[in-house]
Design goal:
Layout: H1 3-22, H2 33-59, H3 64-88, H4 98-125
Length: about 130
Amino acid sequence: MNKFMKITFLIMSITTCSVSFAGIEKCSNLPNQTALNSCSSNALNSANQKINTVYANYMKELSPTEKLQLKEAQRAWIQYKEKDCQFQSSPVLKGSLYPFVHNACLVEKTENRIKELQDMQECRSGNEPGCL
C-alpha cells in the first residue's frame, strides 16, 4: 500500500473505533468536518456535565477520608484521560479530523468512568449483587 492509503486506513480505523465506542454515534453521519467537530464537542460537554453530577452525588455518600481518596483518584484519572487521548489522537494531530478524534476519545473515557462511579455507588448502597 502506498503511504496515502496507509494514512487513510489509519484515520478511518481511528474514526470508526471512536464513533462506535465513544457514544457519539449521532455525530457519524454529519455532512462535513466542521459539523462533526461541533457535534463531538457538544457530546463531550454533555459527558462532562453528567460525570460532574454523578461524582457530586457519590461524594455526598462518602466519609471525609473516602472523599479525599476519591478526589485523588479522580484527579489522577483526569490526567490519565487527557494524556491517553492526546496520544491516541496524535496520528491526526495536524489535520481537521483531530478535534473529532480527540473529543471522541475523551467522551469514551468519560462515559466509562461514569459507569465506574455509578457501579461503585451501587455497591456502596448494597444494590448491586456482584459487588465484592
